[in-house]
Amino acid sequence: MNTQKNILALHSTVAKHSTLAMDIDMAKTLGFDALEIYSGKLEAYLQAGYSEPELKALLKDIPVTGMGYLRDIERQGAERDDLLKEAERLFQLARLVGAKGVQVLTGPINVQAVIDYQQHGTSPHYSGLLGWSEPEQYALTAHNLALLADLARQYDVLLYLEALSWTPLNTLEHQLQLIERSERDNVKIVIDYWHCFTSGVTPEDIARMNKDVIYGVHVCDSLPFSGGIPNEEILRDVPTGQGILNLREWTDAVKATGYEGWWSCELFCKKQQQQNSYEVAKDLKALLASLVGR
Question: Smallest Cα–Cα separation from 46: which of 102, 112, 96, 114?
């Protein structure tokens, strides 16, 4: 793993519609230090007929900070069996390509389930622990997190938790509590500016964190949000740096903790994802460098 400070990683969403080979070329051409990869691009490469050794060779010259993502980590019953199968596959892939961490997400990942539940008390979509008491949500989610962490340890990877802001356990305090209750030292947090903002977390909250619990940072932006259930597809459809978030303030808050790990820009702007991805990535790298001080 790259031991330099303040690593700038290219996130797979910047060139959402490109192949893994293009992502790698983009990162190398533009001088990114590393990649944060979407596992779907790895699976697509393998499903096209390439072997695992070929995949490993393809990524041998560029560090992989992390890999996303394992969804709905609070799943119960037969769905928890699926969760553990999905997790093992992701951990196998992570070890293969040298990813040090795998991103795990609280659920339900589908915001429509939350909207339905608020309006009708039920949803045809997977609803996770909606309607359960907070103590139950904590206990069941932390138990699963511990199981996942133990499985991840067998593959020498850690978990980095991202609480989706429309899900029940969505704040910074919720995440820190989940990690504490899991009682595992290979579970950390990724700071995502958008999810923090839309769950009511402030830069001041971030600045008070212990830097050792932060694994990575997603620098991202938002359109105005007046409350209610945040819809990512709508609110994040903006070029990073052109929304309402003060990216300097959020970045300085992270740096105030003493954190010097990796930073990446997740991108949900549909127009930019249809543009020349090299140009978009070049601009995002310049933005990251200016914010982080590289």
Answer: 96
Q: Is the pLDDT of residue 99 over 50?
A: yes
Distance from chain centroid for Cα 56: 22
Residues 6+ apart with CB under 8 A from 157: 91, 94, 95, 99, 100, 101, 102, 186
Check: CB of residue 174 under 8 Å from CB of residue 145: no
Q: Nearest 5°: phi and psi at 110? A: -85, 110
User: For residue 267, is pLDDT > 50?
Assistant: yes
What value does the mean pLDDT of the chain take?
Answer: 96
Adjacent-strand bridge partners of 104: 70, 161
Helix 39-47 vs helix 20-30: crossing angle, to nearest 10: 130
Is the pTM above the cut of 0.85?
A: yes
Q: Residue 94: phi, psi to the nearest 5?
A: -60, -45
Evaluate whether 63 touches 4 at the Cβ level (below 8 Å).
no
Q: Is 72 left (phi over 0), alpha (psi -120 to 50) or beta?
A: left
Distances (CA, A) of 88 to 59, 93, 101, 147, 156: 20, 9, 13, 11, 12
Helix H segments across the chain? 20-30, 39-47, 52-58, 78-97, 111-120, 134-154, 172-182, 193-198, 203-207, 232-235, 247-256, 270-273, 277-292
Question: Which letter, b or e, does each residue of 214-238 get, where b requires 16 or more Cβ atoms within 10 Å of its Cβ?
Answer: bbbbbbbbbeebeeeebbbeebbbb
Q: At 241, list the tokens.
A: 């740096």
Contact in structure between 210 and 182 (CB atoms under 8 Å): no
